[in-house]
Amino acid sequence: MDLTPPYRFAIPEDAQPIAELVNMAGSDMGRYIWATLARPGQTAWDVGFERARLGLGGFAHHNVVVREVEGRVAACLIGYRPESITTGPADKPHPILAPLVELGHLVTNNWFLNVIATFPDFRGRGFGSELLAIADRRAREASCERISLTMSDANHVARRLYERHGYSERASRPIFKDNWKHAGEHWLLMVKEL
């Protein structure tokens, strides 16, 4: 897929803003999980930045589209066909992710929209809608029949955006919080047929 400025695929130098957007989209869940993966002397942020810089798992640079404003990453989209993600032993899902994995298995021939996020200073400019249009194109180019995403029931703004763009709720699972603090009670599986 060809992208034209201000959109482009991620590069290793985008690691910090991408990790920050991933963490923001997940209501600090990224940092919570990254802390469990940290080696001695590493912080949770070190892990997140490293995964984004190296393009590990869903962070693979060809899976990440960024929106720039004046040379800064303002927003990003991370998405892929679920079967295209290769994981190693260190990538065993954290227990907090179990309900999300379960929801993901309810959908077939899909393109998974893992993250869509915009930094607060850049919200209200239509970047989310533009990124969702890019997700549609990428999913069609990957010969997918639908796009799926999971989200918290506490994120009413995102839900309205998704519903305006043709997504509907298909299933839900209780959120397992462990020690992660989050206002939501359920994960929602949202699907858009293409």
Q: Overview of this structure, please?
A:
This protein is of the alpha+beta class and 194 residues long. The protein has a single domain, classed as Aminopeptidase, CATH 3.40.630. The chain has helices spanning 15-25, 29-37, 44-54, 98-104, 127-141, 156-164, and strands at 7-9, 64-69, 72-80, 110-118, 146-152, 168-174, 186-193. Strands 1-2-3-4-5-7-6 form a 7-stranded mixed beta sheet, with helices on both faces. Helix 1 (15-25) packs across helix 3 and helix 2 packs across helix 3. It is globular and about 45 Å long. The protein starts with 6 loop residues before the first strand and ends with a strand. The mean pLDDT is 93.
Largest sheet geometry: 7 strands, mixed
* CATH homology-level superfamily: Gcn5-related N-acetyltransferase (GNAT)
Low-pLDDT runs of 5+ residues are none
> What's the mean pLDDT score?
93
> What shape does the CA trace take?
globular
Topology (elements, then pairings):
Layout lengths: L6 E3 L5 H11 L3 H9 L6 H11 L9 E6 L2 E9 L17 H7 L5 E9 L8 H15 L4 E7 L3 H9 L3 E7 L11 E8 L1
Parallel strand pairs: 4-5
Antiparallel strand pairs: 1-2, 2-3, 3-4, 5-7, 6-7
Helix pairs in contact: 1-3, 2-3
